[in-house]
Amino acid sequence: MDRQLEKQNSSIFINNMLEASIRIGLLVILIVWTYDIIKPFIIPVLWGAIIAVALMPLTLKLEGVMKGRRGLSATILAVIGITILVVPLIIVMGSIFDGVVGLTDFLQSETVKLPGPPARVAEIPMVGEKLHSTWALFATNMEQALMKYSEEIKAAVGAFAGALGSGLATVVMFIISLLIAAGFMAHSESMAKAVGLVSVRVVGKHGEEWASLIAATIRSVLLGVVGVAFIQSVLIGLAMFVFKIPAAGLITLVVFILAIAQLPALLIVLPVIIYVFSYMDTTPATIFTVWVLLAGLSDNFLKPMLMGRGVDIPMPVILIGAIGGMISAGIIGLFLGAVVLAIWYELFISWMKMSPQEKKSDNETDEVAKAQPNTD
């Protein structure tokens, strides 16, 4: 009798295990297919959500001016954002085109004469002799030098074209994200309600607080990282255009990218300063130098002013999360990294604030729950 019951239980267990395996397998297949379908939209939707969270306060203010027409307010902000993206792109593209045309005319000119390399160039360790001979070849016989290094030149041009194409694709992606953000902002009540329900379902009673923390952290990072990078690049870009520096638009774009990557703008500013002093008079060169140096160092006082506003998380936590997230996941990691560290910080602070009695009570509750027999 016992053996028959054991055999029956074993059969039931095997049937249940097979049924559960089939269900889990079908669920995994469904999840994989769903991910493949929505994969192209994940990044634009994430960016759309980030932009919507960042611009929502401005949308509400504009809604008051527009007498409650939130859809129109969101559309206006999206159009302004697209304009901010497209206009600098046109300026940069025009600057690149002018630079390419100028370089082409220069290389096609029969009177092209490059100065010969100084003798001290050959004394540079490891690369000095090679650099000296290459420079001398370009200075004495440009046509032969271009033929000799044609493969390297083609590779450099190809890499530049690839980077330019990637940049254009990124701009298009941000335009799509702005349109998605406009949709999120226009239906913010229903979106906020859905996010609140999901948050409470996932993390419990603190879900709504964490949803608010995520929104505040995103706004803080947008102001403290992207906002500071934009201000810094505008200040430096104005100096480049005022003093008519070649490829001013491209230099401004590179400064903006470096600032977002949390790298000092002086990496590109210092070579430009050296170039300016090589051909400008002392007075304008000094004015340019002071201008770009102050702009390049402006992030040191702008970040403490803008980053961390509206959240109780210390600025170093947000900054470390933004930098680490960007290193591991690219630009979108700026926000994801800051959000993850902010949540962990809040968890740690909540745990530290718990009294020993509360911790003991929680442990005792868990032990009692484990000790109770399962009546299912």
Automatic annotation (TrEMBL):
The chain crosses the membrane at residues 12-35, 41-60, 72-97, 156-184, 221-243, 249-277, 284-302, 317-345. Residues 357-369 have a biased composition (Basic and acidic residues). It is a multi-pass membrane protein. It is found in: Cell membrane. The keyword Manganese does not apply. The keyword Lyase does not apply. Keywords: Cell membrane, Membrane, Transmembrane, Transmembrane helix, Transport. It holds the Pfam family AI-2E_transport. Residues 357-376 are annotated as: Disordered. Belongs to the autoinducer-2 exporter (AI-2E) (TC 2.A.86) family. This is AI-2E family transporter. It comes from Photobacterium pectinilyticum. The lineage of its organism: Bacteria, Pseudomonadati, Pseudomonadota, Gammaproteobacteria, Vibrionales.
